[in-house]
Amino acid sequence: PNLMNKLKNSINLKPINKINKFLKSLLEINFDSNEDDIKQFFSDCGKVTFVKLLKTPDGRSKGRGFVKFDS
Hints:
The chain has helices at residues 3-10, 35-42; strands spanning 12-15, 23-27, 48-55, 61-69. The protein has a four-stranded antiparallel β-sheet, covered by helices on one side. The protein is of the alpha+beta class and 71 residues long. It has two helices and four strands.
């Protein structure tokens, strides 16, 4: 399957807190995904203003990150 299908099957969104409802925590992200993939994937949900994927010191993905949408 292509990367977008992998993303659809692997992303789990959770709100960070009630104060900032536009910042979401991403869990179980496909390790082959990058910030541009995440931004493109969520573009249908609204304007994505920030994407941060957590990485190990050697640059490998931890499979977690954050995405923020414009209000």
